[in-house]
């Protein structure tokens, strides 16, 4: 089979910060570049102090198109402004002076799809992480109705937003999903989508985890320790349920009082987001209530460190270290350290979850919830086959699993490590991700010109023009 011709690909991602979705975008772009394709990433928000290094060091071409709309209005209307911000970005891409692309890769927000197709005559591949419709009212649990009470005003507000998400998603030429779990749930709740969703698992740049760690780097010195360490890599968001790691860690320490142990909670933190701030402070309060010492740090190399008010912290050798906006070097140092004995992946019903795969690449045992994407990445069962433990999200159950993990003898640990590394390479490599995405992009381009739907196109163009031209008159530009 001949190699496909090089494509000009534009990625559209709303907020290029630090998170699982952003890591996928970065890795996908890197993988396609390595296969000879030209890639540009367009985003409405990119903060050089809160992003992956490949997006600021010149490895990837990132175009930050600053919108006239804020992220929210007094903490409300997030999804409405997200749509408007993406429409503004789409206007830039459809302007006569903008570069032309063979195909667009869109993820998270599908608002732009019909405009790119019918006004730009371009094919679009949409990557579904998980429907926003199912996350708007709290954590999604498959097979259970969300019992959170929603007021009439929010239902009225959400109805057109949910309709827009489904109606624009189904217009993509090809729809991909990050797991069978996401594909199944999306098809179940978006009834109008007739085409199948193809699963392309997020990939890992394995070589990035095999680099030699500079032990003299101040960033790495700040996070490494000789004490046996449990780590959690998750954004500081309530839905990630990082409190489960703290509670199960405290129970483990009570069962092993003589064994020195520590817990590192590392993740993306954005002080602009109330959820991030409240989650951080709730974790600190939880640590205090469990008589655990703690410290909160940011990488010493950060030119603009986050201001942390006095919190009665323990700077030297705390039980719990909260690391905000870790660097790539710190991530690799933690995962490859001989002191690291397990990764705790706390979100339930996670759509995929890159954290367990990162741990398996480095041969670190994984403890994750027994739902969602981790059930596809982590193998649990017979001891001679497992790469980790899948357990119900209960602190007592997790503490028992942790006790089993810390009690493993060296030969058991080495055998599990070898199995985990092999599975990560076989199923979740960058090559597997890039080949899967490349196949979808080539297939979309092969569909030829987009059929002209004049009436729908003009209706969309009218709404599009209103959002783009009248937006700056309605709202002042956000302050930098």
Give an overview of the whole structure.
Helix 7 crosses helix 12 (395-406). With 480 residues, the chain is an alpha/beta fold. The termini are far apart. The protein has a 7-stranded parallel β-sheet with strand order 3-2-1-4-5-6-7. The chain is built from 15 helices and 14 strands.
What is the gyration radius calculated from CA atoms?
23 Å
Largest sheet: 7 strands, parallel
DSSP strand content: 5-15%
Sheet with most strands: strand arrangement: 3-2-1-4-5-6-7
**What is the residue-averaged pLDDT?**
90
| Proportion of residues in helical segments | 25-40%
Number of strands: 14
Contiguous uncertain segments of 5+ residues: 468-475
Shape: globular
The number of helical segments is 15
Keywords, please?
globular, alpha/beta, 15 helices, 7-stranded parallel β-sheet, 39% helix, 480 residues
Provide a concise account of the structure shown.
With 480 residues, the chain is of the alpha/beta class. The chain has helices at residues 20-34, 78-94, 113-118, 152-169, 180-189, 218-221, 243-255, 274-289, 328-336, 354-361, 374-377, 395-406, 410-427, 430-445, 454-474, and strands at 8-13, 38-43, 61-64, 103-107, 123-128, 174-177, 198-199, 229-233, 262-267, 294-297, 320-324, 340-345, 366-369, 388-391.
């Amino acid at each position: 089979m001949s190699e496909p011709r090089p494509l000009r690909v534009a990625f559209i991602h709303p907020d290029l910060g630090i998170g699982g979705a952003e890591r996928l975008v970065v890795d996908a772009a890197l993988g396609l570049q390595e296969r000879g394709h030209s890639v540009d990433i367009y985003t409405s928000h990119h903060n050089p102090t809160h992003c992956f290094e490949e997006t600021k060091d010149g490895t990837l071409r990132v175009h930050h198109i600053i919108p006239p709309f804020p992220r929210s209005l007094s903490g409300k209307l997030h999804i409405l402004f997200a749509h408007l911000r993406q429409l503004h970005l789409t206007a830039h891409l459809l302007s006569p002076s903008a570069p032309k692309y063979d195909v667009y890769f869109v993820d998270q927000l599908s608002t732009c799809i019909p405009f790119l197709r019918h006004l730009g005559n371009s094919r679009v591949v949409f990557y579904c992480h998980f429907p926003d419709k199912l996350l708007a009212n709290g954590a999604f649990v498959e097979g259970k109705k969300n019992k959170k009470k929603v007021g009439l005003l929010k239902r009225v507000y959400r109805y057109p937003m949910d309709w827009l998400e489904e109606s624009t998603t189904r217009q993509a030429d090809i729809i991909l999903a990050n797991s069978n779990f996401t594909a199944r749930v999306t098809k179940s709740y978006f009834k109008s989508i007739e085409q199948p969703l193809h699963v392309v698992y997020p990939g890992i740049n394995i070589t990035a985890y095999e680099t030699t760690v500079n032990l003299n780097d101040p960033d790495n010195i700040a996070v490494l320790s000789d004490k046996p360490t449990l780590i959690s890599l998750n954004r500081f968001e309530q839905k990630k349920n990082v409190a489960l790691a703290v509670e199960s860690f405290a129970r483990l320490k009570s069962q092993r009082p003589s064994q020195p142990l520590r817990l590192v909670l590392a993740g993306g933190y954005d002080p602009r987001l109330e959820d991030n701030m409240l989650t951080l402070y709730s974790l600190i309060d939880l640590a205090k209530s469990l008589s655990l010492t703690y410290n909160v740090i940011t990488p010493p190399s950060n030119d603009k460190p986050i201001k942390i008010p006095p919190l009665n912290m323990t700077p030297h050798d705390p039980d719990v270290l909260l690391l905000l906006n870790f660097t790539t070097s710190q991530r690799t140092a933690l995962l490859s350290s001989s002191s690291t004995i397990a990764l705790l992946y706390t979100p339930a019903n996670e759509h995929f979850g890159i954290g367990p795969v990162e741990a398996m690449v480095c041969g670190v045992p994984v403890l994750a919830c027994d739902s969602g994407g981790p059930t596809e990445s982590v193998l649990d069962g017979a001891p001679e086959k497992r790469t980790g433990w899948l357990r119900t999200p209960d602190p007592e159950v997790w503490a028992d699993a942790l006790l089993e993990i810390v009690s493993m003898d060296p030969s058991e640990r080495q055998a599990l490590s070898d199995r985990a590394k092999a599975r990560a390479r076989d199923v979740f490599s960058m090559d597997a991700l890039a080949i899967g995405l490349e196949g979808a992009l080539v297939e979309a381009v092969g569909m030829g010109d987009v059929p002209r739907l004049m009436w729908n196109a003009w209706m969309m163009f009218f709404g599009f023009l209103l959002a783009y031209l009248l937006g700056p008159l309605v709202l002042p530009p956000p302050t930098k």
